[in-house]
Amino acid sequence: MPGLAIIAWMTKSSEKRVVTADEIAEMADNGEDISRFYNGEFEMMPPLVKRVNVDFTGAMVEELDGEAAGLNISRQAVIKTLVRRALDERYAAAGRSGK
């Protein structure tokens, strides 16, 4: 992983202790110096999620909400599941795999 110089450091008892990314983040939030965990080489990562706006008719939203309620999941989860399924079916029909 670029940027991480070390993920373990010696404690006073001479045992190696692995420091998680969450612990490093907490140290930074507390104003502690975390430079010992980085080697100065940083790589910008693209966002993992891209937000999009989609317009639906009122009837479609009601259908989605009904499915979400029946499955006890969010409307967004229903939309993602249906879109993923549709894309997978399209790729399968074309004889190729999606991402």
Summary tags:
single chain, 99 residues, mainly alpha, 43% helix, elongated
Question: What's the short version?
Answer:
By secondary structure, the protein is mainly α. The protein folds into 2 domains: 1-45, no CATH class; 46-99, Arc Repressor Mutant, CATH 1.10.1220. The chain has helices at 21-29, 58-71, 75-94; strands at 8-10, 16-18.
What is the topology?
Layout: E1 8-10, E2 16-18, H1 21-29, H2 58-71, H3 75-94
Antiparallel strand pairs: 1-2
Nearest-integer average pLDDT = 83
Q: Termini separation (Å)?
A: 23 Å
The total of helices stands at: 3
Q: List low-confidence stretches.
A: 1-7
Tally of separate domains: 2
Helix-strand topology string: EEHHH
Strand content: 5-15%
Shape label:
elongated
Biggest β-sheet: strands ordered side by side in the sheet: 1-2
- Write down the CATH topology of the largest domain: Arc Repressor Mutant
* Alpha-carbon Rg, integer: 23 Å
- Share of residues in helices: 40-55%
Largest sheet: 2 strands, antiparallel
- What top-tier CATH class of the largest domain fits best? Mainly Alpha
Query: Which CATH-level-2 architecture of the largest domain?
Result: Orthogonal Bundle
Number of strands: 2
Structural class: mainly alpha
